[in-house]
Specification:
Layout lengths: L9 H8 L5 H7 L18 H6 L5 H11 L5 H10 L1 H27 L13 H10 L1
């Protein structure tokens, strides 16, 4: 909270909280995925921690992150590192700002697929429906 160097970004917050395009969040909390499975590697659970530490799709980006932050990518270690110096902060933000848009784009493609299950269809909120009705 007292960090004066850089603000939290939206995508960094998604990774730190696990609220984003992660199978465990989309299945459990958002109820928009039928399973928690990782679409990239087939792991049973796709979580923020899985994306940060394990998923092979992000291995090259992870190498750049671990070279600055260190090999331990557990949440306490990452927080200690990014709060400790600007270089670690920048590396973590760069990782999140690269990975999350790609995961979001993949999620949009799955939502728009012709054979999509009804659970995956993007839901429209009341305000969006009203807005679209006004446009007609």
């Amino acid at each position: 909270m007292r960090r004066k160097r850089k603000p939290l970004t939206f995508r960094l917050t998604q990774v730190l909280t696990g609220h984003g395009c992660f199978g465990d969040y989309l299945c459990g909390t958002a109820q928009r995925e039928p399973t928690t499975e990782c679409h990239d590697c087939g792991a049973a659970v796709d979580s923020a921690q899985h994306t940060l530490e394990v998923c092979p799709r992000w291995a090259v980006l992870r190498q750049g992150l671990t070279s600055v932050v260190g090999g331990d990518l557990s949440l306490p270690s990452v927080l200690t590192a990014i709060l400790g110096d600007d270089e670690s902060w920048k590396a973590m933000v760069s990782f999140c700002e690269t990975v999350m848009p790609q995961k979001e784009a993949d999620e949009r493609m799955r939502e728009e697929a012709a054979d999509v299950a009804s659970i995956r269809v993007r839901r429209m909120g009341v305000h969006r429906r009203r807005y679209l009705m006004r446009l007609q």
